[in-house]
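Discussion board: Methods & Data

I've been asked by a reviewer to show the raw model output for two of the constructs in my manuscript, not just the figures. I'm not sure how much to include, so I'm pasting the format here to get opinions. Each protein appears as its amino acid sequence followed by a line of discrete structure tokens. Is this the kind of thing reviewers expect to see in a supplement, or should I convert it first? Here is construct A:
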Amino acid sequence: MILLCLSVLITSCSILRPDKYPVQWPQAQCLPSFPDQDGWYGADGAYSIRLDERRTLWVFGDTFVSEEQKRKDRIGMDVLLGTTMAVSTCSENAAFKIKYYLKKKNGKFVSSFGDNEFLWPQDPFIAQGVLYIPLLIIVGLPENPPPFNFKIGGHKIARIKDFQNDNPNFWPVDYQDWSPALAGGIEALATTSVVHDQYVYFYPLYRYAAGNVNISGNILARLPIRQLDSPAGHFEYLTKGNVWQKNLKPEEVKIIFSAGVSELSVRYHPENREWMAVCLSPENKGRQLLYSTAQNLEGPWSAPEPLIESIAEVDPESALYDQNTFCYAGKEHRQFAQGRNIVITYVCNSIEEIDKQESFIRKNTFLYRPSVVTIRR
């Protein structure tokens, strides 16, 4: 399961006109929730994207699944490795409704993407009417002890030109392998995705180690929208001198998130004419949600500040606490905002062996599912 930590320390560069930023989609008082139904019993990831005026798509990582209804625990339950999807709507009286669309093959639950590959979802985006879902290619490392017995082996994009059908399993999908187009050292490209001003911006998780040079953190990359179908040679990376370069040079690249962020959100807040980055600090097992703001995607960003004092699941004083729990995957969902409220999800996991049937995560279903926080700024 996804165990990459989150945090944020951010810096740097130019000014872009606020009236060019996209208008957000408010849904007054319609707040997400994630009940057990349709065979879905918890997952992580929880990236979301507005598809149209009616629907929001949710993509999740590894998922607990079962044919049994109204389960009270996950003992003996299967874990589907890969990606699952759901679609949510808001009624006229602002009631949130979600339906999980689990995919089956030969009577067995399977990942929504990749027949013979293990693929984790990242932040989806829509450009020129086409839906793109970035996917991490995960390679198992059976010789390593769990839960860190995997590595990221590459990047694929699920390209969906027609997503009108209510059931996403019926969407026609074709795949692009972006791995050869990316610079070496990029472990996770679409930690968050932003479509803006003829580009798609990403904040890749980047690591480089050679000789006495050891670099780890998030950099800023962009790709022209017109090159999404042929990205090779067109990615650009921001340097310390605030210059965009096509050749990533470790000694020149600017680290934007110095702690190394694997999941976050960067979204525009028109009421304040600023961007907001939201993530979960990796300190104290992910106990604190942080945010920073900036006038443009390159920065300069404000110093990180807490959104809430602590997360209960990793607070020793809380009844939800377990010593093996850690939290991550903090991100904002702008389409559910009302006024100056911000709506955030995070996920808590466990370092216990997942196959241990009497583990805390299998006995307690509040763990390993998106938790929703609404915060008034």
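Construct B, same format:
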Amino acid sequence: MEILKSQKHVFWEAFLVTILIFAIGVIAGVIFENWRVNKMDYLYKESEIAFSDIKAQGEIASSLLLDCNSSIEQNRVFADRIFKEAELLSRYDGAQALTEQIYLEHKKYDILRALLWSDSLALKKKCKADFNVVVYLYRYNTPSMDTKAKQGVFSRILAELKEDKGSEIVLVPLAGDNNLSSVSLMMDIYNVSESELPVILINEKTKVTELDTVEDIERLLK
């Protein structure tokens, strides 16, 4: 009888310890998720301010008939910032998300990147800027294993390209399946369908769906 009581006691102790460990894990996960969301939101607000500043500068420059050099340089700085933040945010995305907030934060960034894409193209036409606009449209929501592998190759090659070419390229990484009308409109304009993702669009004209080396894409730049 004593042995039976002892076994029950051990069982309940183990059960309570398991519940405690599980609860601690959930709480720790939520805390980490909130930290990721707060960090992404802070970075987004900084980028949003920087983008608004560039837009204001462009309007001032247009109204005062100034040259394009300053606008081109500020666009380059902002594009480089967006690219570096995209690398950081990709690490956050790699961790398991426990709430929907992380996806909402990603959507806010995608809208900002779509604006960067549109403004870069407008700046090229208005100021005859000679940089290349390379837009990387990828699948964000539940990509297959094959798609993940392919996107990993694309991301590595584009990072290498950006490192080699620097300010010669405005590189815009952008999720193409986040159900955003602004992104869908840009994709429709340049004839990119969601079923094709991932896709690399170069200077509005060249669409790349297969890529093995950085040399493959360098040949397509102007």
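Answer (T.O., handling editor elsewhere):
This is acceptable in a supplement if you add a one-line summary per construct. For B, something like: The chain has one domain: 2-218.
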